[in-house]
Amino acid sequence: MRVMGVDPGLTRCGVGVVEGAPGRRLHLVHVSVVRTDPDDDVALRLLGIETGIEALVDELRPDAVAVERVFSQHNVRTVMGTAQAAGVAMLVAARRGLPVALHTPSEAKAAVTGSGRADKAQVTRMVTRLLSLDEAPRPADAADALALAICHVWRGGARQRLAAAQRSRIEEAARVERARLAARSRGGTVK
């Protein structure tokens, strides 16, 4: 499975793509940061983020996109920009029919370090180790994006299987109900 992790931000939007499967070795496909000028209008900055993520999705062809779930912060302005950038990443994925998963920062930290309270340095060290990188991804936004992608590879696969099983059960229940209604309209009975 190839997963693109997105650590949303208006000034620096981390993007990391990994390939792997639960219980198997992970491989780095790509890591970068989409940057925008803080002096630009917010609409132009969001357009820049969209353009950057679109180009990476089109080039790298992920199977899924994992975006950091925005949580409440004391600085409302910061959380708004982060939420807007997250929305852009989700929109880009949705336009291409890619599944989108939201993971909290503590989920991503726990996935790569074993502790949801790990600091940025610990996350960066573990991402570097897990992907067998010669040097740590910089800035921290890039390492965080890779941590989100790793988290989704390891945890998201199970979520996707559960969601697929649930969709199957729903589709089967809908099929049975349609058959029951069709039989009823023809004057027959169905148990």
UniProtKB/TrEMBL annotation:
Catalytic residues (UniProt): D7, E68, D141
Residues given in the record as Mg(2+) 2 binding sites: E68
Reaction it catalyzes: Endonucleolytic cleavage at a junction such as a reciprocal single-stranded crossover between two homologous DNA duplexes (Holliday junction)
Gene Ontology molecular function: any one: magnesium ion binding
Predominant location: cytoplasm
Cofactor(s) in the UniProt record: Mg(2+)
EC code: 3.1.21.10
GO biological process, one term: DNA repair
Alphabetical keyword list: Cytoplasm, DNA damage, DNA recombination, DNA repair, DNA-binding, Endonuclease, Hydrolase, Magnesium, Metal-binding, Nuclease
Pfam families membership: RuvC
Binding site for Mg(2+) 1: D7, D141
Note on how the cofactor is bound: Binds 2 Mg(2+) ion per subunit.
GO annotations of cellular component type: cytoplasm; Holliday junction resolvase complex
Subcellular location: Cytoplasm
Enzyme superclass (EC): hydrolase
Taxonomy, superkingdom: Bacteria
InterPro entries the UniProt entry points to: RNaseH-like_sf, RNaseH_sf, X-over_junc_endoDNase_Mg_BS, X-over_junc_endoDNase_RuvC
Task performed by this protein: The RuvA-RuvB-RuvC complex processes Holliday junction (HJ) DNA during genetic recombination and DNA repair. Endonuclease that resolves HJ intermediates. Cleaves cruciform DNA by making single-stranded nicks across the HJ at symmetrical positions within the homologous arms, yielding a 5'-phosphate and a 3'-hydroxyl group; requires a central core of homology in the junction. The consensus cleavage sequence is 5'-(A/T)TT(C/G)-3'. Cleavage occurs on the 3'-side of the TT dinucleotide at the point of strand exchange.
Subunit relationships: Homodimer which binds Holliday junction (HJ) DNA. The HJ becomes 2-fold symmetrical on binding to RuvC with unstacked arms; it has a different conformation from HJ DNA in complex with RuvA. In the full resolvosome a probable DNA-RuvA(4)-RuvB(12)-RuvC(2) complex forms which resolves the HJ.
Homology family: Belongs to the RuvC family.
Protein name: Crossover junction endodeoxyribonuclease RuvC
